[in-house]
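EI: anyone free to look at a 112-residue chain?
SC: sure, send it
EI:
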Amino acid sequence: MSFFIPSAIAQTQAAPAEPNQWVTLVMFGGLFVFMYLFVIRPQRKRQKEHKDLITSLSKGDEVVMGSGLLAKIVKVDEEYITVEAANNVELRFQKAFVHAVLPKGTIKKVSA
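SC: here you go
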């Protein structure tokens, strides 16, 4: 058995002191600051920008939907928008599904 586990040798020195609790608290605090700056804060910023985008939607805006559909807004309701994807083709989506608002005339440039 001593082939796999060498025999224990008694220690002549005292056991090492326990680590300082302040160091542990500072490390946890640093981890929280890191997570806030690099994860939480940017995500909140994106959420705020998307909320502002959704509230500013109006009739006639050209938008890109989450699926990549380019369309022009025909009607805006409380929670939904109706978009014209092609001639006489109207689709209804939730406002949250809007990915971006395009400059006017983009759809004509892309389809030409």
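EI: The longest strand covers residues 70-76.
SC: 👍
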